[in-house]
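Appendix B. Chain record.
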Amino acid sequence: MKPLLLNPDVADLGPNGDELTVYDEEHTVTHCRMLDAETAGADWREVARIFLHIDPEAEGERARPPGIRQPPVAREMDFAMGL
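Structure tokens predicted for this chain:
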């Protein structure tokens, strides 16, 4: 596996399958940070700005797309940690 990217740009639509992809692996840190932010109750606008590099004021629909589900990499990590 390649070294983890600490702050990569994200695609408007990520992979939607059940298998881990290169994209998932490249965005592992981003997925973890977003899950941590959600647990901490962080404001979605701040999350969009910091982790997704999206200005929520200028791109509100893109910053908070509806129906976001937990990415496969996060489900795998939950399973590995016994959650």
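Further analysis of this model is presented in Appendix C.
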